[in-house]
Design goal:
The complex is a heterodimer. Chain A is an alpha/beta fold. Chain A contains 19 helices and twelve strands. In chain A, the strands form three sheets. In chain A, strands 1, 2, 3, 6, 11 and 12 form a six-stranded mixed beta sheet that branches. Mean pLDDT of chain A is 89; it is low at 1-14 and 26-40. In chain B, a hairpin with a 7-residue loop joins strand 1 (67-68) and strand 2. By secondary structure, chain B is mainly α. Classes of the chains: A alpha/beta, B mainly alpha.
């Protein structure tokens, strides 16, 4: 007797009521299979995550794991925790080179994703994107941001508005600024109001990388997302007029006394810049990434939306003001994942309402259209609204390969030391020389 | 057997050797062969440890330096390419200059200060016990902690101790962000590192001053020499062996210094405080160019050997 005959015989023997019950059961199973939990059903075993998140983000990752395990009780998360300060890529590379085996890992650098893809270490998730219907929850722009060479390698789970300028309400009140500037001219004009009450308009923590944020936002607003993408891919040279003009615009800020002396900028790290804006109130604005929202809320104990808020980078009137710079974090799966079924299930689940709401309830933005936006706090909601209506450009520094990003940051430090036209030529030439080594 | 070997090696008159050789005196070569098994057995643990801890990493570093390794990409054999690139790398050349300045200045400052304090303390050893312990304690503090202490002192705003003191002295015009200025950052680091390193030279040189024969000092006193004159003409010259040891140790430490630079400036601003050690770290662990970093490591190793070999020869010249 074949399997088909057995099934037919069983079907006949079940009787009318039994057949109805079986049909209902099959329908329920089919519906469950199509829901977010359905494709995860049946997965089990250890799921190893290479994790370098810290603070609130680490808590959020734990909450995500718990929510996934609740739906998949057979799965047991294990973590390889990397304790890092600043750029985590070195620690991740060291972990991988030393033989650490994981199924999943968190990434935030497209250039690093490319490095891993080229080394054959990441699994192509394009098929999973379709089979798990991730596209129902994440738009094509997130698919594009998680792709390398046309294939999906990362499922974005959170993102940050890098064009958001943070400010403390009391500082602005002290300077008599009641409405936040939306244009470049108004923004620069407000410097005098801030300086009149001994407040340095902008805190730029240039000790490591935060000084590049301003160049990147200026560049994008002057030249648009397409030119920025071309610059990142070195399809236009760093000596191009578009780069020099952006640096000259940046120099306008410096010459208007935006940020104190070059020495003070270069001695300041990102925590120092945050403290100067939120604690000391000696500086007006900072643009440093949405992690700062969490810091202001939890470390400085400020009330979000009341004690402090954000303002999008001002319009520059060059025809490209519909752009926001973002960073994002994604989960990727290693090609040699020991528990690929569970890893696939987790990645497919990551954009569902369950996961998105965990992310939102931890004060972070989710790219999923299934997220309950009422969970967003005031600042996160403002950033999500701003990014949602703009063209999105990934933060330029994280797109640059290898040590080009290092040279880029160092040369922009030299620019801060001397923002003259002659030095702008020297700085752009130095970055271009390094960029050529990657062609 | 090992007892025989030990006694044989330790006895110059050869009495035991003759006994072992049935009354005939062993030739040096035969004696060496007689001693070799026991000596090897005793040396084995140290040799194994040395092989794992020193020889293996060194050989691996040398091998790595011939490969082009960029991130997680497949390594490519590069021959002497990394060394050629190093020679052409303006950042590395700047790191070499910074390393020379850093090493010379930190050694001069820490040993100079340690020597001066040791000589002063030698005038009254008991009464200066507490200050000596306090200064030496700074040497025991980790470089990272030292870095954070000095980070606060060099702060660019009024909360920084250095700027606050300058303001009190009416020199507020000089106040600025010391670590953000390429012209002052390296000197600030030199001062911070030298401060932390003064304890060891003080300890070593003070011990040397205590070894100065008392009868010489008494003879000088009888001849009417004043304390400062005795210090200058007797104690200072006779403490030179201690100074040489302190210079040697501080040179090696300074060449390899990393923590203080990492904490205070991260090699900046604009690479102004990047030494070879920091360059090696950045290339190896931030950029993950392991081959290039290994080549820089070997250059640093060569510098350490250039410093240490003459010192070791000098220290062992009169030993057998």
């Amino acid at each position: 007797m074949t399997i088909g005959n057995l099934l037919t015989a069983g079907w006949r023997r079940a009787g009318s009521t039994g057949r109805q019950a079986m049909l209902i059961g099959a329908s329920v199973a089919a519906v469950l299979a199509m829901t977010s939990h359905g494709f995860a059903a049946g997965v089990s075993g250890d799921l190893v995550l290479l994790d370098w998140a810290s603070g609130n983000e680490e808590d959020m990752i734990k909450a995500l794991e718990q929510a996934f395990v609740k739906a998949n009780p057979g799965v047991n998360f294990k973590e390889i925790n990397l304790t890092v300060q600043g750029d985590a890529r070195g620690a991740i590379r060291a972990a991988l080179q030393s033989g650490e085996k994981a199924d999943l890992f968190i990434n935030t650098w497209p250039a690093f994703r490319k490095e891993l893809v080229d080394a054959g270490q990441l699994k192509d998730l394009t098929a999973l994107w379709d089979s798990a219907k991730v596209g129902d929850n994440l738009s094509d722009s997130w698919k594009s941001l998680g792709s390398t060479d046309g294939k999906v390698y990362g499922i974005t789970y959170t993102y940050g508005d890098r064009s958001a300028m943070f400010y403390k309400t009391a500082t602005m009140t002290k300077a008599g600024i009641t409405t936040q500037p939306t244009t470049w001219a108004d923004f620069v004009a407000n410097f005098k109001k801030l300086q009149a009450v001994n407040i340095t308009p902008i805190a730029i923590g240039a000790k490591y990388w935060a000084h590049t944020e301003w160049f990147e936002s200026i560049y994008e607003h002057l030249n648009g997302v397409d030119m920025t993408a071309k610059l990142a891919a070195h399809q236009i040279p760093w000596t191009d007029d578009s780069v020099k003009n952006a640096l000259k615009k940046y120099a306008e800020l410096i010459k208007a006394g935006c940020c104190g002396t070059a020495d003070s900028m270069l001695a300041m790290d990102w925590d120092g810049a945050s403290d100067d804006v939120f604690v000391a109130g000696t500086h007006g604005y900072e643009m440093i990434g949405m992690w700062n929202n969490d810091r202001a809320r939890t470390v400085d104990k400020l009330a979000e939306g009341t004690d402090y808020s954000i303002q999008q980078f001002p319009a520059m009137g060059a025809g490209h003001d519909d752009v926001s710079s973002v960073d994002s974090k994604e989960f990727s799966e290693f090609a040699n994942a020991a528990n690929a079924p569970a890893a696939d299930a987790f990645l497919g689940w990551l954009s569902t309402a369950d996961a998105a709401n965990v992310i939102a309830s931890h004060g972070l933005a989710s790219p999923s259209n299934k997220v309950d936006t009422s969970l967003y706090s005031a600042v996160i909601k403002a950033s999500v609204d701003a990014v949602g209506k703009d063209k999105v450009q990934f933060v330029l520094g994280d797109l640059l390969p290898g040590d080009l990003v290092d040279e880029y940051r160092v040369q922009l430090q030299k620019f801060l030391q001397d923002p003259s036209d002659a030095n702008i030529d020297a700085v752009s030439a130095a970055i271009e020389a390094k960029a050529k080594t990657f062609d | 057997m090992s007892q025989v070997a030990l006694v044989t090696r330790g006895s110059d008159d050869g009495e035991f050797s003759r006994a072992k050789g049935n009354g005939r005196e062993l030739t040096p070569l035969r004696r060496w062969f007689a001693d070799a098994p026991a000596a090897s057995l005793l040396l084995l643990p140290v040799l194994v440890l040395f092989a794992f801890a020193v020889v293996y990493p060194l050989v691996q570093t040398i091998i790595l330096s011939f490969w082009d390794i960029r991130g997680l990409a497949k390594p490519k054999f590069y021959g002497l390419g990394n060394f050629i690139t190093l020679a052409q790398d303006a950042n590395f050349r700047q790191a070499v200059v910074t390393t020379i300045l850093w090493t010379a200045c930190t050694t001069a400052l820490s040993v100079g200060a340690g020597w001066a304090i040791a000589l002063l303390c030698s005038l009254s050893p008991r009464r200066t016990l507490i200050p000596r312990v306090m200064i030496f304690a700074a040497f025991g503090v980790s470089e990272a902690v030292t870095g954070y202490v000095w980070l606060q002192m060099y702060r660019g705003d009024g909360a920084g101790l250095v700027n606050a003191v300058l303001s009190l002295l009416g020199l507020g015009g000089l106040a600025h962000a010391w670590l953000g200025d390429s012209n002052t950052a390296v000197w600030c680091l030199i001062i911070a590192y030298s401060w932390a390193q003064t304890g060891l030279p003080l300890l070593v040189i003070f011990a040397a001053t205590q070894a100065v024969p008392r009868n010489i000092l008494e003879a000088a006193y009888v001849d009417g020499a004043m304390p400062m004159s005795m210090m200058r003409h007797i104690v200072a010259p006779l403490s030179m062996p201690g100074v040489r040891v302190a210079v040697f140790i501080n040179l090696l430490g300074s060449l390899r210094a990393f923590d203080t630079i990492y904490v205070l400036t991260g090699g900046g601003p604009a690479r102004a405080t990047e030494t070879i050690g920091f360059f090696m770290f950045r290339e190896s662990f931030t950029q993950f160019k392991l081959g290039y970093g290994a080549a820089a490591t070997l250059v640093l190793l060569a510098a350490v050997l250039i410093v240490s070999i003459p010192a070791i020869i000098q220290r062992t010249r009169n030993t057998r």
